[in-house]
Amino acid sequence: MEAKLRDELFQQAKEWVLQAGATIRRKIDDPLNIDTKSNPNDLVTTMDKDTEAFFAKKIRDAYPSHLILSEEGFGDDLSTMDGTIWIIDPIDGTMNFVHQKRNFAISIGIYHDGIGEIGLIYNVMDDVLYSAQRTQGAFKNEVEIPKLDPNVPLHESILSFNHFWLCENRLVHEKEMQRLVKTVRGTRTYGSAALEFAYTAEGIVDGYLTMSLAPWDIAAGMVIINEVGGVTTTADGNPVNMLTKNSIFTCNPCVQQEILEDFLIKGKK
Ligand code: 2AM
Ligand code: CA
Ligand code: CA
Ligand code: CA
């Protein structure tokens, strides 16, 4: 995508994200209308749907040739990554939104012919926007995020993942995951994939590992983390497919090989 066009799209997307975030903040104490999806803990609210509808209308009015890949049903059915695609999660961390009224994000990635051009992750309640354009660096609000530290030894690293990795699971033997927990300096669980990507990009955690995420959970995060020198694969080290669900391991490259080979692939089921 041409740089000038990308910058115009970026400014427009940013304006809409900040506008949607302000609406959510204004309505944060309104009564919630909560439904469940795949299971009783998989929540969705009218705020998720209304926010996605807001973006879909704006995009279809302003850019009728663009496509939308999104969580709550206002997007298109896509079978290729051809063209310009807005990959949208209107609220990432819905459980946090419902239970905590914080620690959730709006996540938008814009891809052109399969290449991630723009990433926006907006921590709505903190009013912090993580953003990137391909080749232009990553930013936290207006401040450029430095490249990742190339010298983080595994035993001084902090990893983000949820506790299901330590229960019996279908991907990696629990014993290897327990050994990983005891090897690193610390672990964290934030409950928003988009924010966990942003925190990895910021270097406040050194990696984020997750069992199954959809494209809208990761699209923005992958653009942002690329810009600071981070790397993203599936949990067994393969390339991510943006049209399907994937397990995900995004991290500082200096801990990537050791975690993949000595723990995730070694313990793979
Ligand atoms: P969501 O809030 O947009 O659904 C929670 O650990 C993270 O996993 C969130 O980013 C959440 O996104 C995502 N996630 C993906 N699939 C999920 C599911 N079926 N149930 C709950 N969270 C899910
Ligand atoms: Ca959801
Ligand atoms: Ca999500
Ligand atoms: Ca969501």
UniProtKB/TrEMBL annotation:
<keyword id="KW-0460">Magnesium</keyword>
<dbReference type="InterPro" id="IPR000760">
    <property type="entry name" value="Inositol_monophosphatase-like"/>
</dbReference>
<dbReference type="InterPro" id="IPR020583">
    <property type="entry name" value="Inositol_monoP_metal-BS"/>
</dbReference>
<dbReference type="InterPro" id="IPR020550">
    <property type="entry name" value="Inositol_monophosphatase_CS"/>
</dbReference>
<keyword id="KW-0479">Metal-binding</keyword>
<dbReference type="Pfam" id="PF00459">
    <property type="entry name" value="Inositol_P"/>
</dbReference>
<protein>
    <recommendedName>
        <fullName>inositol-phosphate phosphatase</fullName>
        <ecNumber>3.1.3.25</ecNumber>
    </recommendedName>
</protein>
<keyword id="KW-0378">Hydrolase</keyword>
